[in-house]
Amino acid sequence: MKTDRKPDGTAQGRATVGRPHAGPISSAGPTTSAGPTTGFDALDRQLVHALQLDGRAPFSRIAAVLGVSDQTVARRYTRHRTTGALKVLGLADARALGEIEWMVRVQCTPDAAVSVAEALARRPDTSWVSLMSGGTEIAAVCRAASSDHSDALLLQKLPRTPSVVGVTAHCLLHEFFGGPQGLISKSGALTDTQIAELSPPPPDPPAAPVTLTDADRRLFDTLAHDGRTPLGELAAVTGWSPTTVRRRLAELRADGVLYYDVDYDLRQFGHGVMVALWLSVAPAELAATGEALAVHPEVAFACATTGPNNLFASVLCRDVGALYTYLTTRVAALPGVRAMESAPRIRHIKGAGPLATLSPAASGRHR
User: Fold this and answer.
1) CA dihedral over 127, 293, 24, 261, signed as positive or negative
2) Tens digit of pLDDT for each residue in 72-96?
3) Residue 353 has what DSSP assignment?
């Protein structure tokens, strides 16, 4: 999914962009009295940006563009990958597969919210699962194979328990920012020339949705855990030769089915607050407002949805004061906005990739 791309109907606390991927307020993890912890230096940020552009780019190519040695890039990546501060994910774009994405908000009794959220997170068709507001609302992105399957997903498969007191779901109609576009791309870590040297050719999506084979699905399952899995290991899980794996990766990338996202600790970039922002925008202004919102440096994910609040964004700020300034200046100046709802994220459960260990660390992706 792209932000797979996309959000939790909100935003993720880690920077892996995929689609809603790509969820809101909350600390992205432990903070000190001085604010969120930091640690990435300028080279680390350049490396994250480079991997966001091409998650499987050889270290030698990245090193040449950054002007450092291959060993330096490999050492930096290995250190951050080992500590969990950085991970490359290979994800499938829902739209390229003809899938439908729903941004779901589940209202629960306080005592059940965590268990319901974790149950949702264990499902393979969910992403960007977060606890919002006062801990009684869960935001998530759910994927259905088609419109015909959406009713079964939303009406039958969501947790059915007396502890769930309300469910709303809105279809994701158009993505303004997210997926292979990570928040890091707005950081200025790389120059325009470096971006051009590291960026692969833009995909050329096929006219019809792509159908994946069983081997393709095993390939994506492996890449979702580690987008830089060696060719030999990918060959073993698919039953293909390394040459076939390499060719298939190129085909899926060229068709826009496969994209790479980077999951990183947002605290390393000084982000301490994440908020899901729902805007009600006049229909005639929706496209222009979404495009304007997408370029804001605070916006990690933005999309148009069905429902009375028809524009959604995941917003990341340094602290609550910065969030207030953002809402009262940049958001207030957007055309056509009739109403606004904001919901802080208090705990991140799952991002764009498969559910790993439940950790308090915040991720760099957002929805």
Assistant:
1) positive
2) 999 999 999 998 889 999 999 999 9
3) S
